């Protein structure tokens, strides 16, 4: 891998987009390496992923404009599909993915962050979909995920105006869950990932699938999805151990009797 690094830290995998000379911009090679990296994650040994960018200036500054500038109509559509396929892989990845957003998250950078389950950012983070200023639309899911995350009105305002927003506004509109200093960001993301990894892995995976799949259908169909995934958890070792431990602790708590003192 030339532009992607992968680090395993216990049950947590850390994926870093490492092209700082181009502010971690996404070209075809970066997208291909990202896909290969996620394909190679050992799902037996990994329970959560942190996705970040190298350096303090930029998470991902966008798709590579130098590569896009000469594309034909057909090539542009193919490039959009390549990005969408990779981001959809991240979005539907069996285990949770946390975006640790350091600096610029513009265009494709905002779009890849939105394909992650959870977004946290540094206080110098900047978000935006500047594509209309370049004569194009967002092409890696921006028109779809942004509206689902922050509402159609706010998404239309950001996309139509091509205006960037800072970390405090991203937090206010619900685009990110929390803001940290640059020094705190990656440790906070790893801590959150480790907390997720400490929970029953089958249950966490089923929760992700239930939320993602349920959001695509009406409520009557969504609760059927939940019922099925809820049922799938039973008779697993995780469920037996988790409920067994709870009942044992509850039993021990009830056995603790405070002695009566006659004054």
Distance between the termini: 75 Å
Mean pLDDT: 95
Computed structural class: alpha/beta
Please give the order of strands in the largest beta sheet.
Answer: 1-2-3-5-7-10
Largest sheet: 6 strands, mixed
The string of secondary-structure elements, in order, is: EEHEEHHEEHEEHHEHEHHHH
User: What Rg do the Cα atoms give?
Assistant: 21 Å
Work out the strand percent: 15-25%
Number of distinct helices: 11
Instruction: Characterize the overall form.
Output: globular
The percent range for helix content is 40-55%
Short overview:
By secondary structure, the chain is α/β, with parallel strands linked by helices. The protein has helices at 28-39, 65-68, 73-91, 108-114, 142-150, 152-161, 167-172, 182-197, 201-214, 219-233, 237-255, and strands spanning 4-9, 12-17, 48-53, 58-60, 97-101, 104-106, 118-122, 126-128, 165-166, 178-180.
């Amino acid at each position: 891998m030339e532009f992607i690094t992968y680090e395993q830290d216990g049950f947590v995998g850390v994926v870093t987009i490492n092209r700082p000379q181009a502010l971690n911009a996404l070209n075809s090679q970066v997208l291909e390496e990202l896909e290969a990296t996620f394909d190679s994650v050992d799902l037996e040994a990994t329970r959560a992923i942190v996705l970040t960018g190298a350096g303090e200036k930029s998470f991902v500054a966008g798709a590579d404009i130098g590569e896009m500038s000469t594309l034909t109509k057909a090539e542009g559509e193919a490039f959009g599909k390549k990005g969408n396929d990779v981001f959809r892989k991240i979005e539907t990845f069996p285990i949770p993915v946390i975006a640790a957003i350091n600096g610029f998250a513009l265009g494709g950078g905002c779009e890849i962050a939105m394909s992650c389950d959870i977004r946290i950012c540094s206080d110098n983070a900047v978000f935006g979909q500047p594509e209309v200023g370049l004569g194009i639309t967002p092409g890696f899911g921006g028109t779809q995920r942004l509206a689902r995350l922050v509402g159609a009105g706010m998404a239309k305002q950001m996309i139509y105006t091509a205006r960037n927003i800072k970390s405090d506004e991203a937090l206010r509109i619900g685009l990110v869950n929390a803001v940290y200093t640059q020094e705190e960001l990656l440790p906070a993301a790893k801590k959150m990932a480790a907390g997720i990894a400490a929970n029953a892995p089958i249950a966490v995976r089923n929760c992700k699938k239930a939320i993602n799949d349920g959001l695509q259908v009406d409520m009557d169909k969504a609760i059927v999805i939940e019922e099925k995934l809820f049922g799938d958890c039973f008779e697993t070792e995780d469920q037996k151990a988790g409920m067994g431990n709870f009942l044992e602790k509850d039993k021990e708590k009830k056995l603790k009797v405070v002695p009566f003192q006659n004054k």
